[in-house]
Amino acid sequence: MKITRIVIDKAFKKFDTLDYEFSINISYEDIEDFTFLDFIKEKMKKYNVKNKVVFEILEDESIKNYDILIKFIDEIKNLGCKVALDDFGSGYSNFEHILKMNVDFLKIDASLIKNIVTDKNSLKITKTIIEFAKSLGLKTIAEYVENEEIFNTVKKLGADYSQGYYFSEPKETPEINNTSIKGKNE
After folding, report:
1. Neighbours of 160 (CB within 10 A)
2. CA Rg, the chain, in Å?
3. Rounded Cα distance, 121 and 75, in Å
4. Which tens digits make up the pLDDT trace of 162-184?
5. How many CA atoms are closer than 13 Å to the CA of 38, on its beta-carbon side?
6. How far apart are CA 62 and CA 45, in angstroms?
7. How far is CA 180 from CA 9, 80, 117, 135, 164, in A?
8. Averaged over 115-141, what is the pLDDT?
9. How high is the pLDDT of residue 103?
10. At how many degrees (to 10) do helices 36-46 and 2-15 cross?
11. Which of 48, 55, 63, 144 is deepest in the core (most CB within 10 A)?
12. Mean pLDDT of 103-131
């Protein structure tokens, strides 16, 4: 997809001289394009983003061939990048495939996190996902952390990172300071 390539180019350029990790969402359709990986390799030669970029892959029903996805993940990781599986727990997650994928992070879907304080099932599922991820040596990211109560709950469950409006609304140009670091559950 052309828009993904534009985002990659702009993000790589922006973070070329910054010492921060950043994420870029990509789709299975991007990965399926046989020129996409070459594009990423070309941009990585141009910009100093090795060990800074995390590619977030949305796992959904559009994934037709997990072998293509697994090969892409392996190649991206060989370049020094990290990989997150986005929206995990949203209904299409397949534990068998996750065991085969060499991802670094599981991003727990907002539909679970936003109800974690009021819905016991969301709490139980989130706890199970975090324990599963830890057993595989994966880090977890809780999406949709909107307030301190949700933050404290996911932190208590052992989520490694949190993101959401509790920390900051989305910004075109983020301010890099101590308040933006608050997302790490330490």
Report:
1. 20
2. 16
3. 37
4. 999 999 888 777 676 544 444 44
5. 3
6. 30
7. 23, 24, 24, 28, 11
8. 96
9. 94
10. 20
11. 55
12. 95
114: left (phi over 0), alpha (psi -120 to 50) or beta: alpha
**Measured distance CA(28)–CA(58) in Å, rounded:** 7
Q: What is the pTM of this model?
A: 0.87
- Say how many Å lie between the first and final Cα of the chain, rounded: 37
pLDDT tens column, 40-51: 999 999 999 999
What is the residue-wise DSSP string for 110-178?
A: HHHHTTTTT-HHHHHHHHHHHHHHHHTT-EEEE----SHHHHHHHHHHT-SEE-STTT----SS---SG
Cα distances (angstroms) measured from residue 174 to each of 31, 48, 163, 168: 27, 19, 14, 9
CA 115 to CA 109: how far, in whole Å? Answer: 11
* Best CA proximity match to 110, nearest among 138, 84, 85, 146: 146
Q: How many CB atoms lie within 10 A of CB 85?
A: 23
d(CA 72, CA 74) in angstroms, rounded, equals 5
| 65, HSE (Cβ side, Cα atoms, 13 Å) | 8
Distances (CA, A) of 160 to 59, 140, 155, 170: 20, 5, 7, 20
More confident residue, 64 or 176: 64
